[in-house]
Write a structure and sequence with these properties.
Structural class: mainly alpha
Order of helices and strands: HHHHHHHHHH
Strand content: under 5%
Number of helices: 10
Number of domains: 1
Shape: elongated
Number of strands: 0
Helix content: over 70%
Largest sheet: none
Distance between the termini: 37 Å
């Protein structure tokens, strides 16, 4: 019964930290300054890797569907339709957030862990500042604000990658690809992808912040906290993906 108790203890400590974090900021000017900084550091700086990965994934999906699944018995637009559905329903929201959990989550955990080890967080607490609210809330809101934009960029770049296979590689006719992308389009799938990405952004920021904020030890523990943040965020995202997909579908 030791392990369940430890998990409940950790979950309780996480809830307490989130309760301290989600509070009305004492100084709005400082909060907005941190908020803009975190949006730039966590969201804007991730645009490059999102565009690059989405372009090649969209191209690879289109090629794989065309060469390995499509047959003479299927309509020629199946490749475009399947590429759109995969990008909208899973890759741009779930898989992309798993990738960002490695980049953003480790960044958050290492930053807060270093501040804890160097006693900067203790200094904020001694000065009467709500360190959890000052450090964690801007990260959560900043990532939740930018994540829908990253999802839209990922969707668009995936489609551009599919068109690259059509015009450059000659794998599929551009007209057939366009027909597949437009076939039975449901706008709700876009909103579902955005809603899921916002939830995943909260998971990444909050779990990584907890792992970094609660570091106890030296520089070695900071590295362990960074790894723990990535692993735990990814696992929780996968569980949440199953739940949200069933709830929103």
């Amino acid at each position: 019964m030791i392990f369940p108790f430890n998990y409940l203890q950790i979950f309780g400590a996480y809830l307490v930290l989130m309760w301290r974090s989600i509070a009305v900021p004492d100084r709005w000017r400082m909060f907005f300054k941190q908020y803009v900084k975190e949006m730039s550091q966590l969201g804007v700086d991730s645009i490059g890797i999102v565009l690059l990965i989405s372009f090649f994934i969209g191209a690879v999906i289109c090629i794989q569907i065309k060469l390995n699944i499509q047959s003479p018995w299927m309509p020629r637009w199946v490749s475009g339709y399947t590429t759109r559905e995969i990008m909208l329903l899973e890759f741009s929201s779930s898989i992309m957030c798993l990738i960002l959990a490695g980049k953003v989550g480790s960044n958050i955990a290492s930053e807060l862990g270093t501040m804890r080890v160097t006693q900067q967080i203790d200094a904020l607490d001694i000065m009467g500042v709500n360190s959890a609210n000052y450090l964690i809330l801007p990260k959560i809101l900043g990532l939740m604000t930018l994540m829908p934009c990253l999802v839209v960029f990922s969707d668009c770049m995936g489609i551009i990658g599919a068109y690259a296979t059509a015009y450059v590689g000659g794998i599929i006719a551009p007209d057939d690809l366009t027909t597949g992308l437009q076939h039975s389009f449901k706008a709700w799938f876009v909103w579902m992808s955005i809603i899921k990405s916002i939830a995943f952004a909260f998971i990444i920021a909050s779990v990584s912040s907890y792992c970094g904020y609660t570091v106890d030890g030296g520089s070695v523990e900071v590295g362990k906290a960074s790894t723990s943040a990535v692993v735990n965020s990814s696992i929780i995202i996968l569980f949440a993906d199953v739940f949200l997909t069933q709830l929103l579908s």
